[in-house]
Write a structure and sequence with these properties.
The complex is a heterotrimer. Chain A is an all-alpha fold. Chain A has helices at 2-31, 35-38, 54-60, 65-101, 107-116, 122-136, 142-167, 171-178, 183-194, 196-211, 215-220, 229-232, 244-264, 266-274. Chain A folds into 2 domains: 1-52, no CATH class; 62-277, Orthogonal Bundle (MetI-like fold). Helices cover 73% and strands 0% of the residues of chain A. In chain A, α1 (2-31) crosses α13 (244-264) and α4 (65-101) packs parallel to α7. Chain A is globular and about 70 Å long. Chain B has 2 domains: 43-151 and 319-380, Periplasmic binding protein-like II (D-Maltodextrin-Binding Protein, domain 2, 3-Layer(aba) Sandwich), CATH 3.40.190; 153-315 and 400-441, D-Maltodextrin-Binding Protein, domain 2, CATH 3.40.190. Chain B is built from 17 helices and 11 strands. Chain B has a 5-stranded mixed beta sheet with strand order 2-1-3-11-6. In chain B, α8 (202-215) packs across α9 (234-247). Chain C has a domain at 100-330: MetI-like (MetI-like fold), CATH 1.10.3720. Chain C is built from 14 helices and 2 strands. Chain C has helices at 29-36, 42-78, 96-103, 105-137, 143-150, 152-155, 158-169, 175-182, 197-225, 229-237, 242-270, 274-280, 289-299, 303-330, and strands at residues 81-82, 91-92. In chain C, α9 (197-225) packs antiparallel against α12. Chain C is globular, with a radius of gyration of 25 Å. At the A-C interface, α1, α4, α5, α6 and α7 of A face α2, α4, α5, α6 and α7 of C.
Chain lengths: 279, 443, 334
């Protein structure tokens, strides 16, 4: 029975990988083709016979306004997503711990309210937030955009962290408290290391979520100084043409950085999620 | 706001520190937002923000060298740009000193007073009559913007395909054109000869306006009332013709959703259609004769738009650039606009001073430059020159104030009619009710 | 081989705490007793604990109030006013915005469309999420790389996903057409989007499922990781098959993760915008409610109606999420 399961298991994994990766492969494939080649029937499943680096060249060669735009917005995305991740992890860990382990008046109400805010659609908030930011001078700043990203993923991050803290046995803090440490010390020295799994999951979710943001940064950034890559890519479509292979190349770039981050950290994702059994 | 203040009392040190840090970062990273500290009059050492749907011209640095004005050029796709303009203008916030103004929204912006009457800062008189499509941006007695390119409707045909189908003369009336289409299909030259962008988007609206005009009239009256509900009206006949073309297999079913890699112009470039009734002037040079994007180089030609009894004019749809009222430095913006629309610049953009400096933002806005291009052998140059001079505005006296809403009604209903989920009559009535509603809410 | 697998409750390891409602970590009676039996200064300590609690939650609270609740309150308020750039001034209008929305046939159509998006999306995303999570539950060689690859769709902005899948659905040169024709499953290239309303919505939603299933999987996997191995071992000893293990052990204990994954899917599908916009423009056939909100606000400049529609969407989202969470959580019994 175990062998049957493992073949079924392998097939299952293969299928979900195919499902996930075929569109990405298609983007990569198209990005190495010319426009003319791309429009052929049946489609070229491999970027042959004409393999071109022209699309990437246009995007990355540097030295002209066009590629400067791409490189600058990529940098902006990295900075904004990075700071947002740090912010979300900080806030989510503190609040998640508080909701899971501390009792204080209004805790359930606050918790549900925060979760409920996830239900509010972006379009409901964009104009009031934009006006608020305009009044306090946060339009077109890294800080403004980062704050918005944080407020966007905080509820989910808080939930994940609180879920993690919940799964840890209650006596651990008791032990810490008995040893004379106060709450904050317990949190810092004991709970944080134990909750690394949740922190890593939250960090990865935050980074990916911020990286993919489009509408808020579209409105909140008024120039290349803060515009992220997600906003710059649709701009490659001019009014008259849809340079499809160029767009695909840009899309591949857009997924390259999160892919590198996630693949580089894949060890930690696993060790993170595994530690649910930490006793 | 008050809530935030009362909670401040509760804020403990580390939370306060965190927020201070963020604000410090923000202060350090604010850039173009707090850029120009010069009063409205100064133009040197200023920095202006420009929001456009195209990448910057390659020789933009020459402008800065000449005037000392630095330009932060932000390139966003057209729809996103409209979103930003709306968000910032309704919040009465600065977002740019100069920005694109599409011909279609000149009326709307005029009513909303989101833009300066550009004559306040720019010498518009000196642009006449060389800049042929200035009138497209005139609303009442005020110019909302000036065009930085020129564009109008033309019909394009694939001459090789037409010849193969045995068509010997260029169609000049809609009846001839329809016959030619049928011949192209019947003789098996191409499966779907006619190109109509039936996806729900702005292209479909402008296609219909041109076809209506070809059938004899505009779609809206001067007071904005619909003129197309009667089956014998030009607008109705045009819509019926378009939908019928789809039903009789003259138009590919895939055009219902052509927003993808083969945007409807590419269908021409890939040799999948024989003709487009309403194409954009300039495409032969920039797209169809471009070997890296087209497989039909040298085969596409412009012809005059076939009408009921003979050829008709193309309708204007140029792109303009204007100065929002929230601009921090209108004078500097005006300097840029003057440079962008000047004859030497437009000549450079058109590639007359070397291909490296060409700026592919459409055809030049000045007849004089187009003249030079034609002399140099621009594909269909002479034709375009004459057509530019003859082009007509799509709406008289100006596009409806709530143009986006009107256009949305047009293209969604025509799309539904082509998809078969609505009848032509139903579509026309639906559009008409929106037009009436807009007209009644109007000034 | 026994069909009936003993319920897991009797096998529960002592130090696994499973919460049986929305998970505010309500302590078990034993834990509560332990706390109360501490020193007499318990009330003072609790007050201090209160302070610490508020301190830790303060940043969250400030951000939520400042960037979400206050703007939302503004939206709520303005939905009762006529806020139309083309029809100033701003004036009170009571329920008229809402009434106009109900009378608007395009809005009604968008509501139906959205309902289909939600049903299709939540079902597929949750099923796919469970499948992925279960396949990833146990360690195997390369698992970490597989997980890393599976999350990638969630990293792409919706606009880009729309562009990528455009190349798959394209009626003239798309991958789907190409493959199906090569496999002789269809005879000529089909127009996938724009003809049949349900097919269009389903195919568009498929793209969103591609995007959000990884998040569902991650959330469910998080819950699965908490299930101790001993349970499965005992189950196997008692003669459970893998399917019974799944039904009796995995599913019930994963309900927490599944509930929140479903809630996330509900929110995501109710707010879908970028993907239908890129794939099908603003055609009413497949336009979701958020697209109408955007059009009404940014195109028609009738912000009052836009706020009213947003309010409606928010209320619907909260209601459906609440129902989903309540239903899925409730059946856990120990």
């Amino acid at each position: 029975m175990r062998r049957r399961t493992s073949i079924l298991h392998k097939v299952g994994i293969a299928l979900i990988l195919l499902w996930t990766l075929i569109p990405i492969y298609w983007a990569i494939n198209s990005s190495f083709q010319t426009e003319a080649e791309e429009g052929s029937r049946p489609a070229h499943y491999l970027p042959l016979p004409v393999f071109t680096l022209n699309n990437y060249g246009q995007l990355l060669r540097g030295g002209d306004a066009f590629s400067h735009e791409i490189l600058q917005t990529m940098l902006n995305s990295v900075i904004e997503s990075g700071f947002a991740t740090i912010g979300i992890v900080l806030v989510a860990t503190l609040s998640g711990y508080a909701f899971a382990r501390l009792s204080f008046r209004g805790r359930p109400l606050l918790f549900y309210t925060v979760l409920a805010t996830m239900a509010i659609p972006v379009y409901a908030l964009i104009i009031p937030v934009y006006r608020l930011f305009a009044d306090i001078g946060l339009v077109n700043t890294y800080a403004g955009i980062v704050l918005v990203y944080i407020s966007g993923l905080m509820p989910l991050g808080t939930w994940v962290m609180h879920h993690y803290f919940n799964s840890l046995p209650a006596n651990i803090e008791e032990a810490g408290c008995v040893d004379g440490a106060n709450r904050l010390q317990v949190l810092w020295h004991l709970m944080l290391p134990l909750s690394r799994p949740g922190i890593i999951s939250t960090a990865i979710m935050s980074f990916l979520f911020s990286w993919a943001a489009f509408f808020f940064p579209l409105v909140l950034s008024t120039g290349l100084s803060t515009e992220p890559l997600s906003v710059a890519i649709p701009a490659l479509q001019t009014r008259y043409t849809v340079p499809y292979t160029l767009l695909e190349a840009a899309g591949v770039l857009a997924i390259a950085i999160p892919a590198v981050v996630v693949l580089a950290l894949n060890r930690y994702i696993v060790s993170g999620l595994l530690a649910g059994n930490a006793k | 706001m008050t809530l935030m203040i009362s909670n401040a009392k509760r804020m403990k040190p580390c939370a306060l520190a965190g927020i201070t840090c963020l604000l410090a970062v923000s202060a350090a990273s604010t850039s173009a937002y707090a850029s120009s500290n010069s009063p409205e009059g100064a133009t040197t050492d200023a920095t202006i923000n420009v929001l456009m749907p195209d990448p910057p011209p390659p020789n933009l640095a020459a402008f800065t060298a000449k005037t000392g004005i630095k330009v932060n050029w932000e390139n966003v796709d057209f729809d996103s740009m409209e979103t930003k303009i709306v968000a910032a203008s309704t919040a009465n916030t600065y977002f740019a000193d100069a920005t694109d103004v599409d011909w279609s929204v000149a009326g709307e912006y005029a009513k909303l007073k989101w833009f300066y009457p550009i004559e306040q800062y720019l010498n518009v008189q000196s642009m006449m009559p060389d800049v042929a499509q200035l009138a497209a941006f005139k609303v009442g007695s005020v110019y909302e913007a000036v065009p930085y390119d020129s564009s109008f409707g033309v019909t394009t045909i694939n001459t090789v395909m037409f010849k193969k189908a045995g068509i010997t003369s260029i169609p000049t009336t809609i009846a001839e054109y329809t016959e030619d289409l049928q011949a192209l299909k019947a003789k098996g030259v191409v499966k779907y000869p006619l190109n109509i962008p039936f996806a729900a988007g702005e292209w479909l609206s402008t296609y219909w306006y041109e076809l209506s005009y070809a059938y004899g009239g505009h779609v809206l009256s001067t007071s904005g009332k619909p003129l197309f509900t009667n089956p014998s009206s030009p607008g109705y006949k045009a819509a019926a013709w378009m939908v019928n073309a789809m039903k009789t297999g003259l138009v590919a079913p895939g055009e219902i959703d052509e927003t993808g890699p083969l945007a409807f112009h590419d269908l021409v470039a890939k040799g999948l259609v024989a003709t487009t009734f309403q194409d954009n002037a300039g495409h032969v040079g920039t797209l169809y004769d471009n070997p890296s994007a087209s497989t039909v180089v040298g085969q596409i030609e412009y012809i005059r738009v076939p009408g009921l009894n003979g050829p008709v004019a193309g309708l204007d749809d140029p792109d303009g650039i204007g100065i929002p009222r929230t601009a921090k430095n209108p004078k500097a913006a005006a300097a840029l606009i003057a440079w962008l629309t000047s004859e030497p610049s437009q000549a450079t953009f058109a590639g007359l001073n070397g291909a490296a400096n060409a700026w592919s933002a459409g055809m030049p806005n000045r007849s004089s430059v187009l003249e030079q291009l034609a002399a140099k052998g621009l594909a269909g140059g002479r034709f375009l020159l004459a057509a530019l001079k003859a082009s007509q505005p799509a709406f008289s006296p100006a596009p409806p104030v709530a143009y986006p809403q009107f256009s949305e009604a047009v293209y969604t209903n025509l799309h539904e009619a082509a998809a078969g989920t609505e009848s032509v009559a139903g579509a026309m009535n639906a559009i008409a009710s929106v037009a009436n509603q807009i007209a009644s809410e109007g000034d | 081989m026994s069909e009936v697998c003993p319920p897991p409750s009797s096998q529960l390891a002592k130090n696994v705490t499973v919460t049986n409602h929305e998970g505010l970590g309500s302590a078990s009676p034993a834990q509560r007793e332990r706390r109360n039996l501490r020193s007499p200064g318990v009330s003072r300590r609790r007050r201090r604990s209160d302070h610490v609690g508020y301190l830790l939650v303060a940043p969250l609270f400030v951000l939520v109030v400042g960037l979400v609740i206050v703007p939302a309150a503004f939206t709520l308020g303005e939905s009762f006013f006529n806020v139309n750039e083309l029809n100033p001034p701003v004036r009170f209008s009571g329920l008229s915005n809402f009434r106009q929305l109900v009378e608007n046939s395009v809005v009604r159509m968008a509501t139906v469309n959205t309902a289909v998006y939600v049903v299709v999306g939540v079902t597929l995303a949750t099923l796919l999420g469970i499948l992925m999570a279960v396949l990833l539950q146990r360690r195997f060689r390369g698992r970490s790389v597989v997980i890393a690859l599976l999350i990638l769709p969630w990293a792409l902005p919706g606009v880009i996903e729309g562009i990528v899948w455009e190349g798959i659905y394209d009626p003239n040169v798309g991958l789907l057409n190409s493959v199906l024709t090569s496999l002789h499953l269809i005879h000529h290239y089909q127009t996938w989007l724009g003809e049949n309303r349900f097919v269009t919505i389903a195919l568009i939603e498929l793209v969103q499922v591609w995007q959000i299933a990884p998040l569902s999987a991650l959330l469910i996997l998080t819950a699965l990781q908490v299930i101790p191995d001993e349970l499965y071992q005992v189950g196997r000893l008692d003669g459970c098959s893998s399917w019974s293990s799944f039904r009796r052990i995995t599913l019930p204990l994963a309900r927490g993760g599944i509930a929140i994954a479903m809630a996330q899917a509900v929110i995501a599908t109710l707010n879908v915008f970028d993907i239908p916009y890129v794939l099908n423009g603003t055609a009413p056939t497949a336009a979701p409610l958020t697209m109408e909100t955007y059009l009404v606000s940014f195109q028609d400049l009738n912000f009052g109606q836009g706020y009213a529609l947003s309010l409606f969407v928010t209320v619907v989202t909260i209601s459906i999420s609440f129902i989903v969470v309540k239903t899925v959580y409730r059946q856990v019994e120990y």
